[in-house]
Amino acid sequence: MRRLIISLLFTFALLSPIAALAITPKPMTTKIQSTLLPNRSPLVTFRIIFMTGAASDPAGKEGVAALTSAMLSQGGTKTMTYEQIVEAMYPIATSFDSQIDKEMTVFTGTTHSDNLDKYYGLVNQMLLDPGFRTDDFTRLKTDAINFLKVSLRQSNDEELGKEVLYNVIYNGHAYGHHNIGTISSLEKLTLDDVRNFYKANYTQTNMVLGLAGGYPKELPDKVKADFAKLPAGQPAKGKYETPKLAPGMQVSIVKRETRATALSLGFPINVTRADKDWPALAVVASWFGQHRSSNSYLYQQLREARGLNYGDYAYIEYFPRGMFQFTPDPNQGRTSQIFQIWIRPVVPENGHFTLRAALYEYDKLVRDGMSKEAFEATREFLTKYNNILTQTQDAQLGYALDSLYYNIPDYVPYMRTQLAKLTLDDVNNAIRKHLKSDAMRIAIITKDAEGLRNAILNNKPSPITYNSPKPKAITDEDKVIENYKLTVKPDAVVIVPVEKLFE
Amino acid sequence: MKILVLMSLVVCLPMLVLAQSNSSKSRKLFPYDYTIDDLPNGLRLVTVPTDYPNLVALYIVVQAGSRNEVEAGKTGFAHFFEHIMFRGSENYTADQREAIFKRAGAETNANTSDDRTVYHATFSKDDLDEIMKMEADRFQRLKYALPEFQTESLAVKGEYDKNSANPFRQLFERLRETAFKKHTYSHTTMGFIKDIEAMPTQYEYSLEFFRRFYRPEYTTVVLVGDVTRAHALDLTRKYLGEWKRGNYVANIPAEPAQTGPLTSHIDWPSPTLPIVAIAFRGPAYSDVAKDKMALDLLAQVAFGQNSELYQKLVLKEQKVDTLGTSFSDQVDPELFTVIARIKDPKDVDYVRQQILATYKRYTTELIPQAKLDATRSRLRYGFAMTMDSSAAIATTLAQFIALRRTPETIDKLASVMDAITAEDVRAMAKKYFRDESRTIVTLATKASEATDATEEGKQ
After folding, report:
1. How high is the ipTM of this complex?
2. Is A39's Cβ below 8 Å from some Cβ in B?
């Protein structure tokens, strides 16, 4: 339950349940797709996806997709209040949670097979017969606003930096607002907005049923028959363009009263899991910055060698809440992704140096590519590590659903095959083709925003001192880094008061 | 990253499994077969073969954490030391370690809490021999130079800094400092910032720390997954059989009885919603006495998501957006803490009164039998559902190994739970929820900084 606070602060979690498993073996005409992973486990895992999300928020209604999912997962049904749902789920120790992203909304939960009928009955009601009550709406809308105003703006500089980076890169795009919405839009949303969103987006066409575990073989058809109650619907928009950013480095410095300085850097890439170059980029991202692993190159350079901070990583897919978890949550499929470097907070005096060091390492990556040894070691790592990523049935189901979304074969064998075929040339070509950008975007959270802006614009030297002697290779490199020239125009470094974010 | 300090933020959803029905009650709470092997040097091996194929989870549990930090100025040292354990040993440099783990495709890390430090890795069974050999080397022959030691201290400072943005972290730090005067639970695992800043000067002490606690009698090797007892024992004897037993025992000061209620307040420098934590001095973990388990059950009934208080404050009145408890299973007596984040500062007093009244209520009122049974069922199922991979089983097990060095304690705990009556719960509430053993800590935006966060929707 340490997770309680985390989930309240960073996701919108929930609970719920009721219906009976009457078997209905009638033939079906449903548009609902499914991914099924039956096994002999005593647990049954549901992942029910709707192909809709924050990118489908109508203009001026930012946040309605998230609020709708919260109303379903943390609100009452037509016949049960939310309190009654919590009460029903209590003795079976389960919940029904929602996760919102740009193009996918997923509802997840696991139950012991002892309690499957009861659990499915609840889940069924929650998704098909929502109560849309005013008191739930008021509570969840306030939670959403406080999430943006307090939890994100004021309690977690790392997540804040990452989300600001996404907002900057996708400015003016359907991905351009936080998944939870904007404060001004949330304040104006009504229950009718939620009802309308539900009606338009929670359709058979948009739904994908994911089931794993020891469920009875009739269950998938039963669920599909029940959910045929949803409107047929039209296919979701499906494809969002990757933004073309104006050339030149741009820096957003968020001014906030905080001890440390958090940095995130990145730019859009034209590669998703659906593309043939993805396995090559996955190798690059793993070598350069495997999430929260000490074998990351950036980690070795910035943390292990220099002690600048707690860790330094790189990504080619959206990975929210990374400070709380070691593996990504599945079902956040996107048609547009970014390459991202995450520098965990540094002491403010080292902010400018660390920014330069990150850019220096990025430039080096693009210039030199990967070595043969690094390539081979990382390929071996990923080939085995993918088994660890998918060690629970919930993760297996999540990855299988994402493979359906990206139209690739089953993830682990697919990656094993692709990695085996990969050459060093493939990887270095992919770096040149996809990771070379002249449109780097940078988000920094710090207290002395003006001082940092001034230092960046004037390319002031940023010498670094350590509490212990360093090898000559490091001190030589530091001399380069401390004067590493960043070409950035004065109007490309903006200071944003934290209170203005997500408005 | 190695080094997730496990903070006891909110509720330790205790630990029990499987249902209330007669059929399920007979199931064991820890349903896996396991073996225990004790080496002559005091090292213990617990092996849990599972049906999950190919992978093994190697968890090495050291029964030393921030609780063992008895000397002044050394808070946070157990956690810092955990970082140091990644800096190389006699036969493996840090880089060689990384290369071996990388080749194995391992997920590896470590974490420290009050009572324990856990080093863990999950990887293919084919790599077990090599990894056991390497891990055994650092536990017996850790080797690091002063500059690496000093550099690592900066990473720990970075960890403190990144945590510092979170008001809940600061609240827990203050709560412990206020409630405990003698016992080492008075500091968090992360430690006080002044001690963290002094870490670079503690090289000699770090050698001493290793000599004291990184000993076989403090350590249990837990192997879960696609592994046999014979193989596990063979490797453990081969690589750890020569490890020398130590003789140090930390003299951890007992906390004297509290003699009156305590309060403290934190002025937060940036906008936040106010938070209140109300704690009472509670019992230590036990798989025999009813005290801790009775209060674990009460934590759910009185303050859990379907408690009357939660439904009132969070769902009906909507004055609170976070309500939970923190009450970990600890070696020594722990705080029973209720924590709430309040939407409007003017409601802080009201919410505090409501929480206090709820504590008081259960000192006189019996919880309904149906609720008690439902809570037992919840804890049993909840426990069962945490164990969905070999690594997850090992993670759960490590917490209990740190307390009693055997999985058996889990089933003993389940027996204690099954025996608890509503009268027991009331008696424990009465015993522990006394005004003189209470600590309240509040946190709110400093008056001059109070701007938008609390002015909901007014602009």
Report:
1. 0.91
2. no
